[in-house]
Amino acid sequence: MSPRLAVYAGSFDPVTLGHVDLMQRAARLFDRVVVAVGVHPTRAPLFSVDERLGMLRGAATSLPNIEVTSFGGLLIDFCKDVGAHILIRGLRHSMDFEYELQIAQANADMAPDVETVFLPTASKFGFVTASLIREIASHGGNVSRYVPANVVPALTAKFQR
């Protein structure tokens, strides 16, 4: 049987404990997981691609079957490039499901050999979003219970007045 390779992609701006929870669970389910930072030329992220890759690598140090990288273009093309037939998507609530289902169906139309697997977020992280974290941090709030320890100083540095 061939190793099961999955891709978990996102902007990770910044990586949250919800993201880490999904990474940990995916690492238990699949032989190898590529965690990929999407690069979108029309978006203006808080953190650079290199900063996000560094934060993700720091958050994944205890997960030996996780590989962290970045990609541009269509996610489905990236999956083909790395040889993945499984795409992991996290769901926090029903609104996520409607959006993610539409994307999964479009991906299935473009690449029928790539399956989307939905993993529900742990309930304690259901409200945690990267945009919420950025908002709290921008006002000097404590985000340490929402992000990995290595992300806290990076957020603090970005929002120092």
Q: Determine the CATH superfamily.
A: HUPs
DSSP E strands, number? 5
What is the number of independent domains?
1
Low-confidence stretches: none
Q: What gyration radius follows from the Cα positions, in whole Å? A: 16 Å
Tell me the CATH topology.
Rossmann fold
CATH architecture: 3-Layer(aba) Sandwich
The secondary structure category is alpha/beta
How far is the N terminus from the C terminus? 55 Å
Strand content: 15-25%
- Indicate the mean pLDDT: 94
Q: Major sheet: size, sense and barrel closure?
A: 5 strands, parallel
**Proportion in helices:** 40-55%
* Secondary-structure element pattern, one letter each: EHEHEHEHEHH
Q: Report the principal-axis shape.
A: globular
Question: If you had to describe this structure to a student in words, what would you say it looks like?
Answer:
The protein is an alpha/beta fold and 161 residues long. It has a single domain, classed as Rossmann fold. It has helices spanning 17-29, 49-59, 75-82, 94-110, 130-138, 152-159, and strands at residues 5-10, 32-39, 66-72, 86-91, 115-120. It has a 5-stranded parallel beta sheet with strand order 3-2-1-4-5, with helices on both faces. It is globular. The chain starts with a strand and ends with a helix. The mean pLDDT is 94.
What's the short version?
The protein is an alpha/beta fold and 161 residues long.
